[in-house]
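Hi,

Apologies if this is the wrong queue. I'm a grad student, and the batch job for TetR family transcriptional regulator from Nocardia alba produced an output file that my downstream script rejects. I'm not sure whether the problem is my script or the file. Here is the sequence I used:
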Amino acid sequence: MVRRVDVTDSGRNYGGLSRQQRVALRRNRLTDAALELFGTQGYSSTSIERLCSTANVSTRSFYEDIGSREALLIALVDRLNTAALRRLDEALEHTSEQPLVVRVVESFRAFLAVTCRDRRAARVFYVEVVGVSPVVEEWRRAQRRSISALLTREAQRAAERGEAESRSLHLFGLAVIGAVNSLAQEMVHATVPGDAISVDEICEEIAYFIRSGLTVRTAVAPTN
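Support response: The file is valid. Your script probably expects a header line. Output copied below for reference.
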């Protein structure tokens, strides 16, 4: 009797796993290693050899599965961003009947709960990813545009309800995101206990931004 050997379109199975599954496992291990090393030592101080050693992956597999250190950084921040956006969408759903300021603040709180879940994640997402290369900067711009679009959409809906001013909100959305990024960077850089910034404090500033920038202003009658 001839023994049947399972073969996928991409190659032979080993240990019950297809080539695609093995690649996915190696990519996950490398991404986990990147979170640890980029988040503690820094992106520029972490070599491909150190990443491979930490992930128990050969350098050959690294280049075949990932391609470059830059591509691994993007894979890591994209993983964090995808999880954070999922939590953000859940927050919007749970606050569907709440005022605009509550919806926006709770959405950012959910997003930050993922991207700032520990110091490593916050350092990678808000510090190490800055200024790496034009490719990474384009990823950052696309990410900001995505969040800005969500914020603009919510503000426009609030304006239709008479809850917020009806005006162009694209730049305002980018300004809020820039403020959040700056505060998150300060949170990472803070080393003195008294200078530490919390997610709650960032959310308080977001609330102030929203109330100041979007709240409908009541006209004041001129005095004689």
